[in-house]
Structures are given as C-alpha cells and as structure tokens.
Amino acid sequence: MYRTHHLRKQLRGGIVPRFALAFLLSIFYFPVSALAQFTIVTGTVTDVNGVPYVGGTISASLVTPGGTSPTLNGLGFTGSMSPIGLDATGSFTARLADNNVILPSGTQWKFLVNHTGAPPPLGTGPQTCTATLTITGASQSVSASFAACPFLGRVNIGNLDTIKDGLDYSRTPNGEGPIPLISNGNFEQASPGYFGRNTMPPPGWFPDAAVTASYETVAPCEGNRSLKIVYPGLVGGNEVTANFFTPAQPGDVFYLSGIIKTDGVLTGQLRMNFLDKNNLGIGVDPAASTTSTSCTPVSVTGTAPAGTVYVMVRLAYLPNSTPGTVWYDAINLYKVNYPGGLQAPNVTVSALTSGNCVQATAGGLLTSTASPCGGGFTSVTATPVTVNAAVTTDQNLMAITIPAGTMNLLNHTLLVQLAGVYSTPAASTAVLTHKLKLCAVSGCGSGSVLTLATWATSALGGIQATNNPYSATINATTQTAGAAAAFESHGNLTIDISALASAAEAVFADNNTATVGTIDSTAQLFLQHTVAFSAASASNSATDRQMIADTVN
After folding, report:
1. What is the span of the domain harbouring residue 502?
2. Of the listed ranges 33-42, 122-131, 259-268, the one predicted with least confidence
3. Which of 296, 325, 357 represents a domain boundary (last residue)?
C-alpha cells in the first residue's frame, strides 16, 4: 500500500501519467507465478503388453544440474508434483513449470509411476516405472515414455464375461481370476457344528495322527489364525493333507502358494502330489520350502505328468526324523493353464479395439497388446536398385517396409535374404562394408536407426571386379518387445572378392556379440540394405537384384 499511495501522490503532482500508473500497478499486483510458462502434461501409462496402469499414481520431482537450488522468475522454486491418480484408461493430466524458464538451465522433470499390483498367480505384485524428461511448450504428451512399463499380470484381456468349460474362473467387484482349488487355505473356517470353536482338525484338512495341530492366534501370519503343527520327528515323516483330490490331466499347470514360518530347526514345505487312476503317487512332487523363522511367502508351479488323474496338496517338513514346529497360512492352489482353444462366440472382451493382439503364453495364459499380432509377414522386391556415387559413406540399396507390430512378439524371427552384384575400377583395394538396418523412418536418414548386422570384407587384392556376385542371409529374433525392442541378430555375407565372377566366394560373419537395440517394435519399421566402398570412385557400383523378408514363426 505504500507504493500505491506514493504513486498517487506523484500523479497528483503531474509527475506520472495515468497509463504509466496502470502499468506499474500491474507489476506490483500481478502474481509472480503467472509470469512463468507452464506446460500441460498428459500421458497414458501401460505395461509391456499394453495393459493400462489403472489405479496407479504418478508423481514428479525436479532434477537440477549439480544439485543447485532452482528458481522460477527469480524466486526460490520447490520442484515437485504430489502423486495423482491414473484414471480408468491409465491416463493423467498435470501442469508443470516449463524447464526452459527454470534456472539454472538444464533442469528436467523425473516422473515416478507406482502401482500396487496384484499378487500371483494373476499379478506380478507392486511395480514402478520412471522417466526423466524435459518438459516444455504449451502442452506435451509423455505417453511414449510410459508405453512399456513392467508387466502387471498374467491374464489381462479386459473383461472376460464367459469362459469355455475347462477353467474355473470367477469375476467379483474386487477382481477376477482362477478360483482357488483349496478349501479353507487360510484356516479361518470354524469346524462344522461347533459355532466357531477352535477345534481340530481344521475343515478341509487332515493331519497325520502323530502330529499335534493347533491354531496360532497370538501372532498369526495372516488373518485371525494360522495352522501350527508340532512334528514328533519320525522316520518317514508326517504330513497334513488337503481333503480334496483335484481332478487333473497330463499337461495341466498348477500354481501352489502359501505362507510358512518355522522354529529355525525344521524346513517347512508346501508340496503338490500328482496321482494316477489308482490314487498312487507318480513320483513328480513339485515343492516350495523355507527355513525362515518369520512368515515367508513361498510358491511353486508344477505340470501334471503322463498318467495324472488327480493332484493334491500336502503340508510337510524336512528333515523327517527331526522334531520341531512349522506354521502354515494362506494356502492356495490354482489351475493356471487352459486345456482347449477359446472360441470367439464364448468370449466377450471389452477395452480392446479391432487389430489388438490377444495371445496365449506358456501354459495357455492369455495376454494382450494394443498393437496387431506379429507373424505371417512376407515381402519380396526384385526391381534392381543401383548405387554408384564416388563416396565412402553408406549408400542405400533395396528396402522393405515392415508393418506395425510384426516384430512385437518375443522370440519372433525375421529371415532376410538378399542378393546382388558389384563392380570396381581396375587395381581396386577397397573394403566393402554391407549393413542391414532397421529404421523408424524410410531411408534411415533420421529417427531411430538400428544396425542388425555389419559385414566388412577383406581388402580387394588390386583387382577390377565386374558384376561380382554377393548374397546375405540373416535371422533377427525379437529378444525384447515394445517401445525399446532389442534383437538377437546373426547372419553371413557371401561375396566374390576375386578378379573373376566365377571364382569361389568368401564368407564373412556378422560381428554381433550381444543383442542390438533399441527401436519401437509396435510401430511401422523399414528394413534397409546399404553398401560402402572404403575407396571412393565413380567406377564403384553395387546393384541389389533381390531382397526377401519373411517371418519364420
């Protein structure tokens, strides 16, 4: 108010014009923060299969060079964004200060996504995903940086309304997934007819007569009570057996999980037993165990062998001849494969659009991606392409366009074969370098450029090559899919480096010793063959005559 009063006095004295007063007042009273430029940041967070991080949160903090204190319009600035929720599509909108107006220069925003996840066998537990980005302009999308966050779960194809016979499956307001095949795995049920009394044996379980079974209610692992078993330590051991024999057939995959605590003397164990038609053990008994003296989650996956008719669950211990105590809780058994093919009339899938890929993984579990399924791609070009510039840099020969998503499947392999001829001036000692590139932009002049293989010949022996033949074959296998795809890529170049085109060819292998990456395998890509002569000459020429790209699986 002092400044306002003082200016008004000057105005009355004829010192300051009215328009100048209005300008100065706008400086004194306009909020400092309004002078800064802010960016509207939007994005969608998905896992590697395109499943949105629904219900997760995203936060951001400012990263400054050298840890200096940032300022915004000359004032101290606390660069942070509290966690905000991701909506039903995994998307968010936020407002952040433009990095270009924050001092010192070179600041960035570090984003952190958190998701509580779901427990196995459907989920993969809590997951995080980060990206450090420069935010600038009026608006900016960060979706590309969060398009391949960690895998959230094993069954992620939207809402399954009906499932073909063969898999017990439930949908509730709190989630969906396979129905547990264990009765009273948390030991919370009361014995029938006893009105909740802590009587033995626990419903659904049958302890061997030699063991002492009771409920642990003082310090249970989960819920109100755990099952406490005191083993006497007999040769051959004792067990607690689930009462229910679950029907099974060879090839079925089961997932057994639970919580175990021991006295530190024994090893506690959960075990599956696969039985034949005579209820005799087949000898395949997948087990999970721990010696921990605190409540410890354990799990094991088992595949039913030939001759299987039933699977059953046992609570056990090791070594059998040693007495001791083990506590058990939260025992669950799931059948996690699907024995037959899904038929479209029996499945209604929402949250997917035409072209989305739904595929079965190991054990028949289903996953989905927002991009088309890879596979079935073949492309051939036989229109000759010639280059003959007097340069030593890479020159583009034949190219093939690869549709979006073709290589976006793990272990998917692209076979590329090409052939052509080359010529040189007399007495050439040039080294020829052939490359096969995978690019985000046609011609590989910009964007992501990934070299699948490089073949460099030995120096020509002072010869003149005239239409000497060459050919190359390469297999590129997707080792990591998604926005940062990587490939295991290997192949050979066969080329005539002698004076006569009819002479025997030399073979040169690629020099890859690790995967090559990265590039977005969900997008359209371009396969480009190039050649370079180490000695520039207008008489150097190369002609690609044929190029074939074909997915082999």
Report:
1. 378-551
2. 33-42
3. 357
